[in-house]
Amino acid sequence: MAMILLLGTVCLGMFLGLPVAFAFFAANFLGTYLFLGGDIGLESMPKEFHLAVAKFILTPIALFLLMGEILLHTGVAFKAIGAIDRLITRIPGRLSVVAIVGGTVFSSLSGSTIANTAILGSVLLPDMLKRGYKPVIAVGPIMAVGGIAMLIPPSALAVLLASLAEQSIGKLLIAGIVPGMLMAFLFFAYVVGRCAMNPDLAPAADTDDSHLDQPLTLTVNRRGRPIFTTSYNGPRRRLWNRILPSALYILPLFVIFVVVVGSIFFKLAAPTEAAALGCLAATGACYFFRIFNKTIVISGIEGADFGWREMWKAMMETAKINTMILFIITGSLVFAQALAASGATNGLLELLVAMDMTVMTGMVLMMLVLLFLGAFMDQVSMLLLTLPFFMPLAQSLGIDMLWLMVLMLIVMEISLLTPPFGLLLYVMKGVAPPHINLGTIVYSALPFIVIELFVLALLIWLPELATWLPEKID
Asked: What are the distances in angstroms from CA 464 to CA 253, 266, 353, 460?
């Protein structure tokens, strides 16, 4: 009865349109008053709120968000996607493949699925539709690869999950690499295979690459004035026009990924320190592009707009998102305490243990619960609502916590595309042209949901895909 009362209060609040944090607060006031000593419990709530968020281990969430916002507002992310567009040629569904490769690259630099989808949708989708791509093969890959940011480090949600579960943040970040890259490869294979079998989905000559035939002009400036200019118009100009943007705008960005993931993998820095180093690396990369653009100008290639205005925008957007996350964390942790004090957690756990479930049965049951909730809730709410039950159950069944957390991230990624309330469906609707309705967007997402479910089943069957790489940092 206590569980029904508290969970019902949260669900009722969200149904009435309350922000997630306030829905949890309503349940907290009720649960604290009923199960934690009445007025005394209410008086202690501010202290509990402070203890919930005043944790150093939550710092990487804000830092990973800041890293992605810096790359977004300075325009570096857009230019990297443009470089990938030049690099990939002569392949079925070329621009859809560009979306998958570009989205995977940006996922390794930003922990935001929303930013990933919004950038790719605003940059690539109009051009894809203009060139004759069918919406079903243009919209789906952009949304699907947008969700990979939840798996590939730096993932803010992975940091939050590991922090709440009191597990290793570094290991969970590393554990997401193999499943994330596997998912990206399957997206790539599906798009190429389907466009090869049905060429009507994407035009065979989907790009005007005549700009690659233009001479490559290089100008060196000093104090804003050109002091040296040279032009290359040889037989390999197409190759140089294709490779040079990649070398300038993609390879330097991998330095950020190496700094973050490499410092964690080789135990040179803790996750919080690695996130701070990633912010410095992102800032340094943007500043490098700005100086490079002023000193050396290459035809058709522009630098980043790095300045105080862009940094201010990045910090303000990070503050907005991080504040929302911290409010939800405070509400959910006190909610978990009220559940435990009421006996709801132990009562449900005893009921499940009495069913004498195996490890596999317990894991499948938890994933089914998350898949169901994912159709109606956002990812943070799902995580914070189920974690108080899943952690004790997993411990009682002897389930590897790292394996469970990776599977939870995959299910939450699937929920981003699950109708009726999949978040990325509405993000795509916001950036797509008006003639693309929500039904078309949902239909285009279905094949990629099937691929993600296949990866989920594969990881349930082969846990080593999630645990092999993190074991290397022990």
From this structure: 29, 20, 26, 9
- Res 36 pLDDT > 80: no
Give the C-alpha distances (Å, rounded to integers) separating 468 from 107, 169, 432, 463, 473: 21, 16, 39, 8, 10
Per-residue pLDDT tens digits for 432-456: 888 888 888 889 999 999 999 999 9
Q: Which residues contact 74 (CB under 8 A, 6 or more apart)?
A: 286, 289, 304, 305, 306, 310, 314
**Which residue(s) pair with 297 in the sheet?**
219
Name which of 439, 420, 332, 412 is nearest 376 in CA terms. Answer: 420
Strands of the sheet containing 296-298, edge to edge, are 225-232, 216-222, 296-298
Residue 220: phi, psi to the nearest 5? -105, 125
Amino acid found at 62: A
CB of 381 closer than 8 Å to CB of 425: no
What beta strand segments (E) does 182-286 contain?
A: 216-222, 225-232
In this predicted structure, what is the pLDDT of residue 454?
A: 95
pLDDT at residue 435 in the model = 85
Identity of residue 185: F
- The answer to whether the CB of 111 falls within 8 A of the CB of 278 is no
Per-position DSSP letters for 262-286, written without gaps between them: IHHHTTSS-HHHHHHHHHHHHHHHH
CA dihedral 412, 389, 362, 161 (to 10 degrees): 40
Give every CB contact of residue 89 below 8 A, 6+ residues apart in sequence: 207, 209, 242
Q: Are 173 and 238 in contact (CB under 8 A)?
A: no
Angstrom distance (rounded) from CA 72 to CA 64: 13
Residues with Cβ within 8 Å of residue 163, at least 6 apart in sequence: 55, 57, 58, 169
How many Å apart are CA 344 and CA 183, to the nearest integer? Answer: 37
DSSP state of 57: G
Residue with tokens 């798996």: 151
Cross-strand bridge partners of residue 436: none
Reduce the DSSP state of residue 302 to 3 states and report it. Answer: coil
- Identity of the residue numbered 219: T
With a cut of 80, say whether residue 247 has pLDDT above it.
Answer: no
pLDDT at 409 over 90: yes
Tens digits of residue pLDDT in 275-298: 899 889 988 888 877 776 666 666
Tell me how crowded residue 341 is: count the other CB atoms within 10 A of its CB: 17
Cβ–Cβ under 8 Å, residues 160 and 325: yes
Residue with tokens 């700005």: 290
- The reported pLDDT for the residue numbered 459 is 94
8-state DSSP, 204: S
Contacts of 170 (CB under 8 A, 6+ apart): 264, 270, 271, 274, 470, 473
